[in-house]
């Protein structure tokens, strides 16, 4: 991964499996957000591939994987429609109500009637515990509720994969915990796979069952695996220190 000649990370290899809650972790500036951009179509790798498994076996070589950045635009578009994204800020349109925010992707990418869209928007809000808030504007609800509304919008097109950038940033510990519970619920009830950039150790242990650790100094990954195992078993002291806030492990 590079910005022009500035290499951020190299030699990253890891698998994200269906229904994983996969955490991208590492210190500030190691390249977590940059890695996320490679998954959601915002940045092309300087070298290497991002492979998505596809049941339709539409890979160029007949394999079950599609090379995201090499495939045709139409197939890339189809892959992107399997993905939902929650940006750090929540990125809701402030001039639209919550229901209108969720209706937006539904209007753009489906042939549903306005009344079906309205109904679906309410259903998505109910999924994240925001029933009855359809007509509220983002400025009229709390930060935690805005994150949940952002998640409802990310869920609008029923994605298999959800990418979340620092979902609990700026939330108090209780709201952060509620968001973690919601992520676990959505994984269990809808079967979604999550890829989450987060610094929050409590979240990493509560929701993560798989992860990659990016290191800014060596500019490569130090490990991949379940953070709950890595905290005591990882060979890398840097990783153990990170997961124990330098308090041993
Ligand atoms: N658009 C850009 N152009 C040039 N360099 C960039 C750009 N975005 C990020 N970088 C650099 O790439 C490196 C990785 O940045 P990135 O935001 O991916 O890290 P991060 O791990 O998400 O950081 P943080 O935890 O602080 O949010 C940093 O050195 C950053 O300065």
UniProtKB/TrEMBL annotation:
One of its GO terms (molecular function) is ATP binding. SMART domains: AAA. Keywords: ATP-binding, Nucleotide-binding, Transport. Pfam families: ABC_tran. SUPFAM superfamilies: P-loop containing nucleoside triphosphate hydrolases. Residues 1-243 form the ABC transporter domain. It comes from the Bacteria. InterPro entries: AAA+_ATPase, ABC_transporter-like_ATP-bd, ABC_transporter-like_CS, P-loop_NTPase. This is Polyamine ABC transporter ATP-binding protein.
